[in-house]
Design brief:
The protein contains 2 helices and no strands. It is an all-alpha fold and about 55 residues long. The longest helix has 14 residues.
């Protein structure tokens, strides 16, 4: 189904889940800085493995 022109916010379950993930990330605390992309990737993968759903 096409998105309504005047739509605000998530329109379906997939968009709602994506919105929740984005908000979780934004509200998860202070950011971290990485010297190299490899360090970020390792941290990101570790967090995904340890994540509870």
């Amino acid at each position: 189904m096409p998105r309504a022109a005047d739509a605000v916010g998530p329109q379906n379950e997939a968009e709602h889940r994506l919105y929740e993930l984005i908000m979780e990330g934004l509200n998860s605390g202070d950011g971290a800085e990485f010297e190299r992309v490899e360090e970020f990737a390792a941290e990101f993968r570790a967090r995904l493995r340890n994540r509870t759903r």
